[in-house]
Amino acid sequence: MADTLQNLLLGFEVVLTPSVLIYAFLGCVIGTIVGVLPGLGPLAGMSMLLPISFGLPPTTAIVLLAGIYYGAMYGGSTTSILMRIPGEAASVITCIDGHEMARQGRAGPALAIAAIGSFVAGTAGVVALMLLAPPLASLALAFGPPEYFALLLMGLLVLSYISSGPMPKSLMMAALGLLLGMIGIDPMSGYNRFSGGIPELADGLGVIPLAVGLFGVSEIMLTYGARVMRPMKPRLSELVPSREEARASVGPIWRGTVIGFLIGIIPGSAHVLSSFVSYAVERRLSRHPERFGRGAVEGVAGPESANNAAASGSFVPMLALGVPLGPVQAILIAVLIVLGITPGPLLITQQPELFWGFIASMYVGNLVLLILNLPLVGLFVLFLRIPYAYLYPTILLCCIVGVYTVNSSMVELLIMASAGAVGYVLRRLQYDVPPIVLGYILSPMLEMSFRQSLAMSGGDYLIFFHRPFATTLLAIGAGVLLLDIAPSLLRRRAHQTAD
Amino acid sequence: MRTFAAVVMVLMGFSVQAPAQENFPSKPITILMGYPPGGSTDTTARAIAPVLERILGQPIVIQNRPGAAALVGTLAVANAPPDGYTVTVATTQLALLPAVDRVFGRPPSFTRDQFAPIALVSAEPSVLFVNASQPWRNFQDMIEDARKRPGQIVYASGGLYGTTHLAIEIVLKATGTKMRHLPTAGGGPALTAVLGNHAALLAAHPAVGGPQARAGTLRAIGTMGSNRAESFPDVPTLKELGYEAEYYQWNGLFTQAKVPEPVITIWREAIAKAVKDPEFVQAMQRLGSGIHYLDRDEFRPWWDEDSRKTEETVQAIGKVQ
Amino acid sequence: MNGPRPNDRSRAYQRMGVAAIVGTGLVFIWRSLADLPLGTIDNPGPAAMPLALAVLLVIFALWSLKAESSTLFDQSESPDAAAAEPGALRHAVLVLVAVTVAAIAINALGYRLTMLALLLFFLGAVERKPIVTVLIVSFALSFGSYALFDHLLKVTLPTGPFGI
């Protein structure tokens, strides 16, 4: 423990110099801007600063680029809450309760709790990273395709928790989302599925056009007349969370942190699921689950914490093993290599200033982001006072530019428009839209890990049971499922005997 | 008056059509990449861009246009105006994507002859890495084991028909063995799969597996070049062991085939200077990729040979379902 | 009493929605079987999962029809109630058409002109705001956002005729 503290002090020494601090601040600011704008993600911000980062000392470069990444995690909730447009995939779930809170005049508290939760989760994540990186990395390596599949099956269970309304309708939306995820090139066989000859569909519909369309554009189409938000005069009580809100957020923040961090370590794109899982868990644990979907602050606190913790967690494999698990880590690793540092299992021991400087910078960065975002809450809430007639065309502009900047693709704009139309119709018919996005994200990973498992075993389905980790996960999933179905099954039994 | 106006317009028309190659380059240049930032192709481009900027005297912008396994960006390059202002750093995808199209019976999205090679910049032999816990002490051991239990050993690749997949298929064909293929979603996941022992073997760029080999989590048992890899001088080449199995992870500069020859010459001269520039040399060393430079006239047959191997191997693999 | 008529209409719309979803499922089933190999049990092909999901989708849709009679819709908070306002449908269609047209025009006309047109349309033609305000806001937002992306964030947005 003393060792760790000493190393940490070393790290702070490296970081608390004016030059490094300036870059940490710059990274956080750019990350926040990039996160606030829908569509544009941390990747774009990092690519933009790559040339500059090549001219910096390694620790400073990493501090700058990493700041963009978790800065974006802070900013992503802003548009979700204010405009019901997801800043990036991880913020989709915040749109549900976050925007409802805004509609009820609680935008300020929602933004504040999102920022505070992100700070707590980000900081706790760094602590875990600092103390547990190497053993966690070995744990992450144990996750092969069968384990991944078992985990994602549990993700399917999550689907049922994020929807409200009659069972068949929720299942339909889940199935629709899962089906839409099948569009594109199948990585296991090379076939181009359901793309109708459109080359841009080879990588799928795209989660950003889909989410921005289903949530943002459809929201604007739906909002007319009586549903328009009244501009409000801000009083202090409308900027600051109430005591109940604060108390209600404590549990979700901690649970979200743990869930998010664990999911973040796992290799693959699973970290996007962290916010969905947190939402589902909070809803399951809540004594008044019917409040979810109507402005429950737990539905903001949990997911926002989860996605920040996942961001911290996703650095574990990168720092402890030198393995990039996603495009963001790939850029960070590339920068390190170009600057003469070879990431690998020996990085922590051979380059302690880099590792500990990075850790220290994350503490500093999270603090900077909190200080940056809290006052901005007041500014953002002012945004809602703009008369709706001026607001919605602006939001449409944000949607269009946000989606366009991802891939400069007209096809994706059309996908967004179509998703908007579909979302409008579905919501008019009282279907629940979030499961579509989750299903869309889940199904390609689910299918791939399943077929990869069979590829590994040569077709033997028992592989899922020959591996203790996978079997345990499957058992937990089955257990949770039974726990849920049991009450309704028992009730049906009781009715039948009563008849 | 009218005649004067007509003459002026004709003269203006001529001046507009005067070829820009007279003072190439006279405006900013774009390196359009089919790969996302962070991969080896992209970092090579970013390493050479500042050097070329200095040599050519014009700003160079790197644009990443990832999508559909480099198809989107590569098509964008092919369709860009052939004036020499849009180039790309490319690799096997130029031969690979049309070959895959042919396997699926689709008309090829583009063909190799839409591109003019300028120079080869780096070429590292694929290195065969196995998880350190595997019992094989060397390549022969592994092949014998593979012969004893065909189709049981699992190898990982960064994607179906990708270079890491083709490399192993070439090895299997040369040794007459069969193994199980585990396709993953890219280089990172493939490496993780082998590190976690979910697959035993991976063919990768030496820089990808290098840090792991030095840390003892992976072991290099063979390389696929004509000479030993610089970063693995103790590891034999498959050629030495008696197998015809050569495959490289390479990056080269290309532009559109219709670009006028004088412009291409300017590019070739620029690259020839760039590869000697100490800043570039150091950057490539850090990337773990030595500079392996071939000017256009030597590059073309080299590229044709690599493309032939790529196309043949893709044909041989065919459809997997 | 409003009674039976809104409910009948809602029920008809619900049925149309379900029909559309069933239709979507059937299309996916058809294309899976027509274009893609099914594979085998120990090596499922690219058609396997889409087929299964599409079949499930159709099953769930038909189930929802059967269960329909026992589900009562909560009219108070549904978008239905508010959207029944006159002009709501017109608003929705206008938004959709405008976004679609903007999507198609953005590469041809360039970002600034397209966004300018979009904003002028909504602020000026639809919302009928005072013309000076409309002009100022539209120009500021379209050209300003272009500047933000192009100069500050170095993200290239398309330019149109005359380089605008």
Describe the structure.
The complex is a heterotrimer of chains A (499), B (321) and C (164). Chain A has 499 residues and is mostly helical. Chain A has 21 helices and two strands. In chain A, strands 1-2 form a two-stranded antiparallel ribbon. Chain B is of the alpha/beta class and 321 residues long. Chain B folds into two domains: 166 residues, D-Maltodextrin-Binding Protein, domain 2, CATH 3.40.190; 97 residues, Periplasmic binding protein-like II (D-Maltodextrin-Binding Protein, domain 2), CATH 3.40.190. Chain B is built from eleven helices and eleven strands. Chain C has two domains: 69 residues; 78 residues, no CATH class. In chain C, strand 1 and strand 2 form a beta hairpin. In chain C, helix 1 packs antiparallel against helix 2 and helix 4 runs antiparallel to helix 5. About 4% of the residues of chain C have low confidence. Chains in contact: A-B, A-C, B-C. The interface between A and B is large, with 55 and 56 residues.
Name the features:
heterotrimer; A: 499 residues; mainly alpha; B: 321 residues; alpha/beta; D-Maltodextrin-Binding Protein, domain 2; 2 domains; 11 helices; 44% helix; globular
**Element string of chain C (H = helix, E = strand):** HEEHHHHH
Q: How many strands of chain C?
A: 2
The strand count of chain B comes to: 11
The end-to-end span of chain C amounts to 58 Å
End-to-end Cα distance of chain B: 74 Å
Query: Would you tell me the overall average pLDDT of chain C?
Result: 86
Examine the coordinates and then state which fold CATH places here, giving the name of the CATH topology of the largest domain in chain B. D-Maltodextrin-Binding Protein, domain 2
Radius of gyration of chain B: 22 Å
Number of domains in the coordinates of chain B? 2
From the spread of the alpha carbons, the general shape of chain C counts as flat
Secondary structure category of chain B = alpha/beta
How is the biggest beta sheet of chain B arranged?
6 strands, mixed
Q: Helical percent range of chain B?
A: 40-55%
Element layout with pairings:
The complex is a heterotrimer of chains A (499), B (321) and C (164).
Chain A: H1 2-15, H2 18-36, H3 42-53, H4 58-83, H5 94-103, H6 107-141, H7 145-161, H8 167-180, E1 184-185, E2 192-193, H9 207-222, H10 243-265, H11 273-285, H12 298-313, H13 315-321, H14 327-338, H15 347-350, H16 352-383, H17 388-407, H18 410-428, H19 434-457, H20 463-466, H21 468-498
Antiparallel strand pairs in A: 1-2
Helix pairs in contact in A: 1-16, 2-4, 2-16, 3-4, 3-14, 4-5, 4-6, 4-12, 4-14, 4-16, 5-6, 5-12, 6-10, 6-12, 6-13, 6-16, 7-11, 7-19, 7-21, 8-19, 9-17, 9-18, 9-19, 10-11, 10-12, 11-12, 17-18
Chain B: H1 2-17, E1 29-33, H2 40-56, E2 60-64, H3 71-79, E3 86-90, H4 93-103, E4 115-125, E5 127-131, H5 139-148, E6 154-157, H6 163-175, E7 180-183, H7 187-195, E8 201-204, H8 206-215, E9 218-223, E10 248-256, H9 261-274, H10 278-286, E11 294-295, H11 296-317
Parallel strand pairs in B: 1-2, 1-3, 6-7, 6-8
Antiparallel strand pairs in B: 3-10, 4-10, 4-11, 5-8, 5-9
Chain C: H1 4-35, E1 39-40, E2 43-44, H2 48-67, H3 79-83, H4 88-109, H5 111-126, H6 131-152
